[in-house]
Amino acid sequence: MTDPSELRHEMVERQLKARGIGDPHVLAAMGEVPRERFVPEPMREFAYEDGPLPIGEAQTISQPYIVALMIEAAGIEPGACVLEVGAGSGYAAAVIGRIAGRVFAIERHPALAAEAARRMADLGYGNVTVIAGDGSVGLPAEAPFDAIVVAAGGDKVPEPLKRQLAIGARLVVPVGGEALQSLLCVTRTGEEEWSEADLGAVRFVPLIGAFGRNGGRWEDGERAASNHRPARELTLAECIAEAAEPLPEIDDPAFADPFERFADRRIVLLGEASHGTHEFYQARAAITRRLVERHGFTIVAVEADWPDAMAIDRYIRQEPFRPTRHPPFERFPTWMWRNTEIDRLIHALRAINEGREPERMVGFHGLDIYNMAGSIEAVLAYLDEHDAEAARVARARYGCLTPWQADPATYGRAALTRGYAECEEAAVAECRELLDRALREDGGMFGAAMNARLIASAEKYYRVMYYGGAESWNLRDSHMAETLEHLLEHGGPEAKALVWAHNSHIGDARATEMGQVRGEHNIGQLVRERWGEQAALIGFGTHTGTVTAADDWDSPRKVKRVLPGRADSYERQCHDSGVARFLLDLTPGRHEALRRRLAEPRLERFIGVIYRPETERWSHYSTCVLPEQFDAFVWFDETRALEPLGPPEPRSGLPETYPFGL
Predict the structure, then answer these.
(1) Cβ atoms within 10 Å of 192's Cβ, excluding its own
(2) Confidence at residue 204, expressed as pLDDT on a 0 to 100 scale
């Protein structure tokens, strides 16, 4: 493992200074306190990553940037007396203690409080006192405080904490809904006067206590008013039902009719809430056929790898078969593109191209950096041969290659072994060789140019992916967005594209926890920033049914039961509408009252190639704002698992190994 002091220095430079943290006291303290001592042993390799980590008791240690932001906003000066609420592992209290004269930290979980107190003693931080108790009531015996920092979110600012501030002192506290809060900085300007400033969106565990979430001393009239709903006010589910446009069965020719409203866009992005749901693929195929046949779309760009997709592209353009070392899409997860719906679409696109001039033919292209699945396979093959324990760790790590995981422990992230770290150069070389072999089999001037771009991106991506983190996600989506832009440029000013990717890629990341909390971007955001209203972002969702997925990366495919949508999710609201299949147009200017109702952040479900119902809340839900995330949302209340393609039946003029042969 890299020297922790070097990691602290890099954290300060890249995560704090680069984002505008400038208080020299905060930067010095963050560079001094050993964050790795405040997380569980299995999490220590991730201590300096740009995100929160689990610490037990369903609590987390906050992202380093958020810790620094809150302490800087509190205006803590040397010698100050500070109260911290929600001490957790004690990390923030330790950082504050490197600046302040005296720190009182309250933690409601006795076990965490005891562990934090032991850490302070072991590290010699004698000016920090950790107390087990209800932090929402503060610590009147030690008040007034020169600053108060609260690391848990309530539905209002706790009154006792406001009153325990010294005049001129600041309270930094997250306030808002259970899923997402606003970070407020409250300054006491007089005996009965306070001012507030909003520092932005954050996500914290709930503030539990007498003055915590849904607690406190409400006046009877205030409580009654807060629960009052006019008799004619509709529920959110009823509002959705009113605005929803019911859809016929997908195999009905009229299914695609409502989507022609987006035919004038240059880019239409079609999402999916899972990589293994039949209806998502079938619906996207129907929409794709309609827009290609009638509205001049000539680019189908998918969340797949360029060399694999090129094999399909040659077939639908009726170009000669070119044998390759390996058939396309044969690596995990094979069902994403080797399935019955893609097979039907490929032959439909080939039929559409018959009789068209080459420049009017529709093409099928992969956007992805080659080749996440293949690269992982190469890494695992190398590690299996040279270090079995490192291979086990790698398999656990690759199960976490999704941006919506709220709890890294869910996917078994474990400490790096020495052998794993020592294998980096050889493993990346394996990936590079895998890529080189595939690209040598591809031809054509445009294909060669795209492959040259791909090599430049892939080398960096393989290294970033090897260690994980948000940087790999951003690099991958930037590459996909740039590939799409090159395809449009190559197609000319009239070229129009359809994009198939997961909701996590095509829904604007700025309206999700990905962008608001973790600083991740995606194709949807980048396309909106580049093309604005020329792009339509269409998400897909479901309440329950079955899905094709695996337990772990590279594990056998299973048909799994999808749990019903959570009560606090958008999925439950759509289900409660009572409409089995619908299109919900979220374009600004349409259904504005509904858009306002939907603008309250809620949970949204994301299922990739891995699905773990037993940890679904933390491994598959993320906070989003649906009307800002998508321009439209397609709903199927109950769905079924995607059907993988078996051994192909021979077709006239089609080699049996092409494009999905085994």
Answers:
(1) 7
(2) 86
Task: Express as a percent the part of the chain with pLDDT over 90.
Answer: 58
Q: Which residues are catalytic, by number?
A: 62
| Long-range CB contacts (within 8 A, 24+) of 216-225 | 216/136, 216/156, 216/158, 216/159, 217/159
Question: What whole-number distance in Å separates Cα of residue 333 and Cα of residue 215?
Answer: 47
Domain that holds residue 160: 4-225
Angle at 413 between CA 202 and CA 68, to 5 degrees: 30
Burial of 167 (0-12, 13-18, 19+ CB in 10 A): exposed
β-bridge mates for residue 181, sequence order:
176, 202
User: How many CB atoms within 10 Å of residue 132?
Assistant: 17
Angle at 556 between CA 551 and CA 560, to 5 degrees: 55
CA trace torsion 596, 599, 602, 603 (10° rounding): 120
Sign (positive or negative) of CA dihedral 5, 412, 602, 504: positive
Query: How many domains does the structure of the chain reveal?
Result: 2
pTM higher than 0.85: no
CATH number of the domain at 101, please: 3.40.50.150
Same domain, 203 and 251: no
Q: Which residues lie closer than 8 Å to 129 by C-beta, 6 or more apart?
A: 102, 103, 104, 105
**pLDDT at res. 220:** 34
Instruction: Take residue 107 and report the two structure tokens written for it.
Output: 């933690």
Residues 249 and 209 in one domain: no
Look-up of token digits 């507030």: 196
What is the rounded (10 degree) CA torsion for 623, 626, 629, 630? 150
Mark whether 569 and 502 lie in a shared domain.
Answer: yes
Distance (Å, whole) CA 562 – CA 276: 11
Joined together, the tokens standing for residue 371 give 């080749």
Query: What's the confidence (pLDDT) of residue 260?
Result: 96
Domain end: 165, 196, 225, which one?
Answer: 225
Of the ranges 2-11, 53-62, 75-84, 281-290, which one carries the lowest mean pLDDT score?
53-62
Whether residues 215 and 250 share a domain: the answer is no
Same domain as 285, residue 203? no
Sequence-distant (6+) residues with CB within 8 A of 123 are 34, 37, 94
**Residue 229 pLDDT exceeds 50:** no
| HEC-encoded secondary structure of 459-523 | HHHHHHHHHCCHHHHHHHHHHHHHHHHHHHHHHCCCCCEEEECCHHHHCCHHHEHHHHHHCCCCH
Kindly state whether residues 120 and 182 are assigned to the same domain. yes
**Pair (209, 268) in one structural domain:** no
Q: Is residue 657 part of a domain?
A: no
Is residue 482 located within the same domain as residue 590?
Answer: yes
